[in-house]
Amino acid sequence: MKRKCSCKRHIFCLGLFCFIYILFFKMLCGPGERYLPRKMAAQEVQPSETIAKLKLESETLKTKLEEERAKLHDVELHQVAEKVEPLGQFVMKTRRTLKGHGNKVLCMDWCKDKRRIVSSSQDGKVIVWDAFTTNKEHAVTMPCTWVMACAYAPSGCAVACGGLDNKCSVYPLSLDKNENLAAKKKSVAMHTNYLSACSFTNSDMQILTSSGDGTCALWDVESGQLLQSFHGHAADVLCLDLAPSETGNTFVSGGCDKKANVWDMRTGQCIQSFETHESDINSVRYYPSGDAFASGSDDATCRLYDLRADREVAIYSKESIIFGASSVDFSLSGRLLFGGYNDYTINVWDVLKGTRVAILFGHENRVSTLRVSPDGTAFCSGSWDHTLRVWA
Amino acid sequence: MSKHSKFQTALCSRPPRRSTITWAFLPLLHQAEVNASARRSTTSSSRHQSGSPPVGAHVHFEKTVKMTIKLIRDHGQHYRPRMACLKKVEALVIEMQDPKSGVKSFEQKRNATSIPHVIAGQDITAWITSHMTVDAQEAQALGTMLVAYGFIYPLQDPKTLILRPDGSLYRCQTPYFWPAQKWKAQDTDYAIYLAKRNIRKKGILDQYEQERYRKLHKWLNHKWDFIVNQAKEQTRAGKARMKSDRVVFSYQERAYWIVHRPPPQTHSAMDYGVDRLIDPNAEEEKNSYYYRRIIIFRQQAIMRSKVKSTVSLGALVKHTMTYQSHDPFLTPCLPSNPWQTDDDTYWALNMPDVDLPTKMTVERWSYGFYELLRDPRGRADFRLFLKKEFSGENLAFWEAAEELKWGAASAISEKAETIFKTFLAPGAPCWINIDGRTMGLTVKGLQHPHRHVLDAAQNHIFMLMKKDTFYRYLKSPVYKDIQKKAISPAPHNFTDAQLEQNARNRKPGLYPSVTWQRQQKEKVRTTTLIDIKKLMANKLDRQ
Q1: Interface ipTM
Q2: Is pLDDT at B475 greater than 50 in this prediction?
Q3: Considering only CB atoms, which chain B residues are within 8 Å of A377?
Q4: Cα distance from N-terminal residue to C-terminal residue, chain B
Q5: How far apart are CA A151 and CA A163, in angstroms?
């Protein structure tokens, strides 16, 4: 008898449950839709169709863009430069050799006073030199190894550096020799992976950094606040350079995704992108007028990109140059492009004519960094052979 | 086991070399390793470079496995950077080995065995010189790189990886031992190699090899039996071959390990620096977000105004030609380049607070308004001109806006208020004349000041100064006066003895912080000067 009662109760509960279930799904699916699996199947068909449509649209836009560019592409750089006089023979020698790092020199930067240099190395040491007298003025030991980025502040009163610690730290320099610089260190930038490059903007108060996590960021030094971040690279960002022009609101960055992107610092948007290299871009540098920039890459070429025409205008390569360019910089007029390569040499290119004018030997290991001094009187190259050389 | 028996048949195809043991344990013990790394001392950083554990570590199965994994230094980056050079070098080396057009090879008799396909250093250099149309020095440098990467190895002095352009003997490395981008030379293989040599003849290992052998024994202890068995098997298999083959193989193997495990005080060309975070060879997933992003970007690129190449390239060429005479690499700077003659007169003449600038500097000011503003001496001259014209407020506003834009975030609201009171408020002491719309926008924006709030007004003022005031300045008596007074230094003509003396007397010069403080004081002085004058003028007007 008890069983009979429980059966009835069971059937009643089951019936109630079914009723509620159907009601619930009717409300969810709406009229006309009964089975969930059918709806999911319909959704699966849609994404691939949309992707195909999007792909087609992007391809048509690409062809349209190429057509527009081709219409404006009426002359080559070396043709315009035909009337320019060729350069004579160059005699560039090592004028100073700065020895003091115990390990690979990874990065260096000039001070605005045209003679001081800050350099950083693999063992965590950051040294400030007076390159003219070859004296070491300050030395800081970072708590991390592989300090891949260092920069001198425009005032000359501070240096910024960072590397595998994922941070960019600013050290104010003091005239007191005995003062421990590490005590006044200020941690400014925080990335989620190694810092590959950093640069002060027009003042000591802002720093622009690029990182292995694929982003660049603009920071306020005093508060450590993130002012703007720049997303768009699909792989590690290896280098950046700020535009020298009067508007001064853009910068270019190059990364392992073979792209060089030009960014607007105010909005954080990528305004132009160039993807013609065949390998990682190790270094980007603006042309002195700010209307073009050069890039050096692992595919052993340096290329010049014109920002106003929105295309690549010159390739600096030679059959005998096989190893990647790690660092490039322009001379003051923009006529010469200096490139430091992984085959221990420095090649000097005629920017307008596209030919090589000189090859400089001297380093015993990779040239990792190369910068021309602010007044263009010399350039300094740092190498994995633990030394820096100033050439003039 | 099977993959190592393939090692015997020195094939062109390369079997994967990853040791399955370490990789299998990696995900499980990653967290443990991260914990362990937190306890590691920072002084062992130099040993981390070679990947060895602290000396005196307990030899314990778990810990040795962890220590092996510690070799994979974890900063989150695991991908080797691209080595685009390897493909090109491979193509070059294959061309070199071409029997008709390559480097001519010969047989060399050595210790009663004859080694085939030996090439001489001078032949390599000559071939590179003719094949790539370069000079001898560059050919030698390129050849040295080929030796450093292990594509060619020396027979006579195997540890010195340079190309000697004389009769020194070299051989091309077999493709099996070419450097590969995909994987690193494994410690296990190195241990097998050292064990083989040790077994063959005790005491043949060098000092540094013995030390490494001991270290490897410590932390590959868990698979030491495997290593010793492999070494014995390979030695046995080697004995079954012809003597000349065996000798050649031993040279090849030795050369490979000298490149990938260089002796102390030398560097390996295979050293590439820091790993990458994101796989450089991975393709970005092409989903709808990717395509939408590309579409937006391309639409913007089409809408953006582009310039004809004749115009933009012409501008580049013009810029270069204008500045050519100012480029110290192209035209010798006067009086002399400080780096070449050790005399820093050039810098002294171009200091920002110098009384009389040089003719070159003054000429440069006329090239563009921003050139004038960028040079502190030029800006001072321009300020003098504006003072005479009673329109100093434009430049003062521009400078104040620059300071706001590039200054500290905390000072923005304070600076914005000062600027409003000084330049923009009706009846302000230095009221600037901008059009009503811009003024309205700026004043509205100043209620919630941010870094770029003055951008519109600043651009307007800059354009005004550039298009009007600048040209008047260039025609003004102030500029003509400074042009006349500017000095034209005579080029130095030092004798060798004088040059040596200059080198001895290099002065350290002013510290940048001292110069900076001076500049700041000067700036404060000039700005207060303007304010006081205006205030006085206003007071007089009202009276």
Answers
A1: 0.86
A2: yes
A3: 328, 333, 337-339, 346
A4: 103
A5: 12
